[in-house]
What does this fold into?
Amino acid sequence: MTTLSTKHLLGIKDLKLDDIRLILSTAANFKEVLSRPIKKVPSLRDVTIANLFFENSTRTRLSFELAERRLSADVINFTASSSSVSKGETLIDTVNNILAMKVDIIVMRHPNAGAAEFLSRYVNAQIVNAGDGPHEHPTQALLDAFSIQEKFGDVKGLKVAIVGDILHSRVALSNILCLQKLGAEVMVCGPSTLLPKHINSLGVKVSNNLREALEWCDVANMLRIQLERQDIRYFPSLREYIQLFGLNMEILSSLSKKITIMHPGPINRGVEITSEVADSDQSIILSQVENGVAVRMAVLYLLAGRTAE
It folds into this structure.
C-alpha cells in the first residue's frame, strides 16, 4: 500500500491498519531527512496549507507549521481571536473565504467535537483534524505510536497505560484506538470521576490505582488535568490528586521493572509528573516533540496525493 485509503485525517477511527503503518513508515523516512544539514524538501512546493486554530495552541500549531515549511508548502496561519469569527461569521463562511484563496489542505483545531468531520462534508479541501474538543487528536496518537515503535521496535504486544484525565482528553481516545489497531494492550487509570462511563466498551483495562497500572505496563502516558474543560469539581483537591495519581521518582524507581514515560504536553510539572521524572532517562517526551514534525510531514505528504516510496 502506497497511498492512504481516506481523503481526510479526521480521526484514528477512520484509518485502517495499513494507513497507520504507511504513515509511520513515511514518517521514518522524513525523520531521516530532518537529521540532514538541509532539512527542507520540495515535496509540497505547489501546495497551499491553511492552519485554522479556533483554540489556543502552541506546540501543535508550531509542529504543523514547521512540518509544512519543511515540505516547502505555502502556509497561511489563521487564529479565531483576530478574525471575523469574533464578529459572528460562521465556520463554513470562514473556510470558504479561505478556500477562495486556492487553499488545498486545511489543518483545523476546534473546541467542538465533530467540527472537522462537519467541515469535510461541506468544503472542497482536505481536512486534517488537529484536535476537536475532547473527541480526537489523531496526529498526537500517531506520533505517540511512532515514538513507542522507535523505542521498542514494535508496538504489537506492548502494554500501555494512559493515566490521568481520560474523560476530557482527545489524546486518550485517539491513543486507545491507534494502539489497539497496532496490537498493543491498553489500560486507562485515573479517578473514577475522570473516566468516561462508556470506557469499558473500548476494550481497555481500567484501574483506579496508579501503582497497579505502572506495575502492569511497559509504557505510561501521563496526561494532564484539563482544568479548562472542567465545569465542575471532579476530585476534592489538586493536592489529593497529586498524592494518588502524580508520578514521582520515588514511585518510578520502586517499580519491579523499568518502564518508559510519555507525555503529550504541555506538562504540569509537579502535578501529573515531577520534573525529575520528565527529565529522566526513562522519559521519551522530547522524542515525542521531535517525532511530531516527522509524523505531520508524513500525513500532509500522503494526503496531498504523494505516493510513498
Remarks:
- Residues 140 and 171 are 7 Å apart (CA to CA).
- The chain has two domains: 12-136+289-303, 138-288.
